[in-house]
Amino acid sequence: MMNGYDLSNDYVIAELVKDQILENIFSFLNLKDLKNCMLVCKTWFRILGDENNELWRFHCIRRLSEEVLRSDLLSNLPTYKTKLRAFLHAWSPNDCSRNIYIKPNGFTLHRNPVAQSTDACRGKIGFSRGRHAWEVIWEGPLGTVAVIGVSTKQAPLQCQGYVGLLGSDESSWGWNLVDNILLHNGDTQGDYPMMNNSPKYQVGERVRVILDCDSGTLCFEKKYEFLGVAFRNLPFNTKLYPTVSAVYGNTEVSMVYVGLPLDG
After folding, report:
1. What pTM was computed for the model?
2. Are 155 and 170 contacting, i.e. CB atoms less than 8 angstroms apart?
3. Domain 92-259, classified CATH 2.60.120.920, yes or no
4. Nearest of 224, 67, 96, 202 to residue 141 by alpha carbon
5. Which of 48, 115, 210, 234 could tie 216 with a disulfide, CB 3.0–4.6 Å?
6. What tens digit of pLDDT does each residue of 61-106 get?
């Protein structure tokens, strides 16, 4: 206080202006540089740690289409930064069958109506450490085989016939939503989930895939109900990618990376 004037107001205003200037500067940096900037000082860490400020809104709007931001697809992601992170983890247009293309929203694959072919697609980023969760939404008919799970880069992305491509070799693990069975190394690994009269997947349901690289397990949730461990003894220090394989023409499958799974 000086001569009846409260200097704290000026301090608050100055801090706000400083934050706005930094946010503006950060908007010109790429995401890798922003990650490094978080290590510089507490102020920069605080600004970059606010996942819903104008900085992350700018980066989010610059990369994501207005259509997907207005849709319900990302409704479970509360902040701009989590939406941007999901986009960076979405389906890879460079790691899919030639019969699949990624729609302009960046999150949804479309399988062309090609007869006698099974086609797969992987996410952009694989995981070898930590715990990760993502949601898969099958937005078209399942056909005779519809498999979700994980694979390494060595797993094939296309084959002849209508088969469980994901799970057909030692480099992939999948859950066939049509028959409620697990597939790996070309063999059926048993029914899943392990419950009486397991309900069939309904088109449009969100299935959450939970990969724990540290314990080597793959699990699934449906309607926020934990369905149990599907696979154990997944390879350590090997990148595993979100993957699906489909057979039905014009079917579409979306994938939204959630991040660290919540227990309980």
Report:
1. 0.87
2. no
3. yes
4. 202
5. 234
6. 889 988 899 899 999 999 999 999 999 999 999 999 999 999 999 9
